[in-house]
């Protein structure tokens, strides 16, 4: 006989099935529809379920936000690709246009320089003298704007030779005198232009009654900047390399960097207004003042090297020769010659009966010109310092200058600038009429490109 607790396999399965049915029936009959459990366990489980249900909206919003960012990122990447493609296309088009321009320019150059059968240049067989005479009667504006150089190869060759170039410059001033061409306006100050200087690169500097210095482009005449720093009238300017010097009625000399207009130093020492400035090949800076003295400033630390005394009135004009010799003109009617090495007084030139307002060392003739309030220009030989000639003018001579061809330019404090060819006797000089808005032409300054600049009491600056 078997033990009662030992059941056969089929009986055991039946027992387990019956037990499961009983438990299921008890669960269905439970009023809370849940299995019996402790109250703490049930409470914790219910809180977990509620927490999950409450967090479902937040999770959904975060998912939506992430998807929106992804979509926007895809759009931006697509825009970036489109922009890069457009840029590459524009670059290719620009390069194609540039290549086409170069090709057309080469074709034009070839066409201009290639003789055409049956249409030979008639100037090819003309003697130089005849050709020059022909071009001198051509309207000067045609020569000035380059028309002849475009259609005549011979003209381009002749215009590069010194004799022809010099003769054309004579014709240039004659054209101004006849009114064939007019001076061009560079710019304007709000007050009188009292000082002009031109740098080696053609940049123009102008000082005015309004206490400012204006900087102008020598290429297109554009106003580049305005330098402010003086407390009174800017009376004198001098430029050397990348440094500009200005003298003022505030009794100071200021140093400026030309590249950016920065003010570097202020030199104090004069007890009256600064009227004139000059620079030497050794790097010295000279300043003449109404205190009757000339101060020499070092080119290194800008300290005062020496003080030159000898004039009995204000020093209105300073000029430095190519050998470094200093010349000074004064309200005491004299010109003094100083050694550039040690400042020794070499000579005193007397003869004017009025204030000496301007000085010029002529590069061509080896003489010194002096312009005075006595309405004369005197020519001094630098060999022995003897007076060789006196030229009578109409009014006070306020400025003297020399263009790149060596012509003497004279400003007589009126509406005109007069010029004489270099190396010729001064007889019947042509007169260049200045623009109508000029009341009086006060200062002159030659430029490196052959231009000459003039400033007036009404603040206008023109160039020839």
Q: What's the short version?
A:
The chain has helices at residues 9-28, 39-113, 128-136, 140-144, 147-151, 153-158, 162-178, and strands spanning 184-188, 193-198, 204-208, 212-216, 223-228, 234-240, 243-248, 252-257, 263-268, 274-279, 285-289, 293-297, 304-309, 315-320, 326-330, 334-338, 345-350, 356-361, 367-372, 376-381, 386-392, 399-402, 408-411, 416-420, 431-433, 441-446, 452-456, 460-463.
What does this structure look like?
With 464 residues, this protein is α+β, with helices and mostly antiparallel strands. It contains 7 helices and 28 strands. It has helices spanning 9-28, 39-113, 128-136, 140-144, 147-151, 153-158, 162-178; strands spanning 184-188, 193-198, 204-208, 212-216, 223-228, 234-240, 243-248, 252-257, 263-268, 274-279, 285-289, 293-297, 304-309, 315-320, 326-330, 334-338, 345-350, 356-361, 367-372, 376-381, 386-392, 399-402, 408-411, 416-420, 431-433, 441-446, 452-456, 460-463. A 4-stranded antiparallel sheet has the order 1-28-27-26, with no helix packed on it. Strands 2-3-4-5 form a 4-stranded antiparallel sheet, with no helix packed on it. Strands 6-7-8-9 form a 4-stranded antiparallel sheet, with no helix packed on it. The relative contact order is 0.07.
């Amino acid at each position: 006989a078997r033990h009662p607790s030992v059941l056969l396999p089929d009986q055991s399965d039946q027992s387990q099935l019956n037990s499961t049915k009983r438990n299921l029936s008890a669960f269905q009959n439970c009023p809370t529809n849940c299995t019996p459990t402790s109250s703490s366990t049930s409470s914790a489980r219910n809180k977990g379920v509620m927490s999950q249900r409450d967090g479902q909206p937040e999770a959904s919003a975060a998912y939506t936000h992430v998807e929106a960012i992804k979509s926007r990122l895809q759009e931006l990447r697509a825009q970036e690709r489109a922009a890069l493609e457009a840029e590459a296309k524009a670059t290719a088009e620009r390069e194609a246009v540039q290549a086409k321009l170069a090709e057309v320019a080469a074709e034009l150059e070839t066409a201009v320089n290639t003789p055409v059968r049956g249409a030979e240049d008639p100037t090819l067989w003309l003697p130089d003298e005849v050709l020059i005479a022909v071009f001198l009667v051509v309207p000067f504006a045609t020569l000035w704007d380059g028309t002849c150089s475009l259609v005549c190869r011979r003209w381009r060759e002749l215009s590069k030779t010194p004799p022809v170039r010099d003769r054309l410059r004579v014709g240039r001033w004659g054209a101004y005198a006849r009114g064939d061409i007019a001076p061009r306006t560079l710019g304007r100050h709000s007050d009188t232009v009292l000082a002009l200087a031109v740098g080696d690169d053609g940049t123009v500097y102008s000082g005015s009654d309004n206490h400012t210095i204006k900087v102008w482009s020598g290429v297109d005449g554009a106003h580049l900047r305005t330098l402010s720093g003086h407390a009174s009238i800017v009376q004198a300017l001098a430029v050397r390399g990348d440094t500009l010097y200005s003298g003022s009625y505030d009794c100071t000399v200021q140093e400026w960097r030309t590249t950016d207009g920065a003010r570097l130093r202020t030199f104090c020492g004069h007890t009256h207004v600064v009227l004139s400035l000059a620079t030497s090949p050794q790097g010295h800076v000279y300043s003449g003042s109404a205190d009757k003295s000339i101060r020499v400033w070092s080119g290194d630390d800008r300290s005062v090297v020496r003080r030159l005394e000898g004039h009995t009135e204000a020093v209105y004009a300073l000029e430095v020769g190519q050998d470094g010799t200093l010349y000074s003109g004064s309200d005491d009617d004299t010109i003094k010659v100083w050694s550039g090495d040690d400042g020794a007084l070499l000579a005193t030139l007397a003869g004017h009966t009025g204030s000496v307002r301007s000085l010029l060392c002529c590069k061509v003739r080896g003489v010194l010109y002096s312009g005075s309030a006595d309405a004369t220009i005197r020519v001094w030989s630098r060999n022995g310092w003897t007076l060789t000639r006196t030229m009578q003018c109409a009014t006070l001579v306020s400025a003297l200058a020399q263009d790149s061809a060596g012509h003497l330019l004279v400003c007589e404090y009126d509406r005109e600038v007069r010029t004489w060819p270099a190396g010729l006797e001064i007889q019947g000089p042509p007169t260049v009429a200045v623009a109508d808005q000029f009341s009086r032409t006060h200062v002159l300054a030659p430029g490196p490109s052959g231009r000459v600049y003039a400033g007036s009491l009404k603040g206008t600056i023109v160039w020839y």
